Amino acid sequence: MNAPTPPQPVASPCTSVCSMDAASGFCRGCLRTLDEIAQWSRLDDAGKRAVLARLPPRRGAVTPPQEAA
């Protein structure tokens, strides 16, 4: 009998495109707020999944990185 595989840690959504959109307050790369970015390493997996769940609707609220420059 195989032992269950331990859960994988929740990966950061960081894309190394760290540029804040002034109008929305979201990072153009990962779509998180500054508070969410700062808290990421202290969140448990449930908290990280909650942040990740909030990201998709934010995509339309920011100017894409290539257009922002």
Topology:
Elements: H1 34-39, H2 45-54, H3 65-68
Number of helices: 3
The arrangement of helices and strands along the chain is HHH
* Unreliable stretches covering 5 or more consecutive residues: none
Mean pLDDT score: 90
What share of the residues does DSSP label as strand, in percent?
under 5%
Helix share of residues? 25-40%
Let me know the number of strands: 0
Radius of gyration: 15 Å
- Assign an overall shape: elongated
Biggest sheet architecture: none
| N/C terminus separation | 55 Å
What does this structure look like?
This protein has about 70 residues and is mainly α. The chain has a domain of about 40 residues. The chain contains 3 helices and no strands. The longest helix has 10 residues. It is elongated and about 55 Å long. The model has no long low-confidence stretch (mean pLDDT about 90).
